[in-house]
Design brief:
Elements (H helix, E strand, L loop, with lengths): L2 E9 L4 H16 L4 E8 L6 E8 L2 H8 L2 H9 L4 E9 L4
Antiparallel strand pairs: 1-3, 1-4, 2-3
């Protein structure tokens, strides 16, 4: 069964550009990963420090592989102290 992910990231004030640049680095690498159907980054039109990834994966196992990938570890290191909050929702389509 496919899996939808909503990942919400809020940057620390003053760190918005850093967080955005690091999130954008993830896009081409992740889109090339096995199981990635789509991986789309959105930014709030009024709060430029609030980002949402809308992701779809063929299955949870391949998403878990993504979550343990080196490029995500590099993102975490590069944004250490720059992210105020992170919320992740694993979701399933209802119809």
């Amino acid at each position: 069964m496919s899996l939808t992910i909503l990942a919400q990231i809020t940057a620390v004030p003053g760190k918005e550009a850093l967080v955005r640049a690091e999130l954008e680095k993830l896009i081409p690498i992740t889109r090339a990963e096995e199981g990635c159907i789509n991986y789309d980054l959105h930014v709030d039109n009024e709060n430029h420090g609030f980002f949402v990834f809308y992701e779809n994966w063929t299955n949870r196992d391949l998403w878990q592989t993504h979550m343990n990938a080196p490029h995500l570890a590099a993102y975490m290191q590069a944004t250490d102290g720059a992210v105020a909050s992170f919320t992740l929702n694993e979701m399933s389509k209802t119809s």
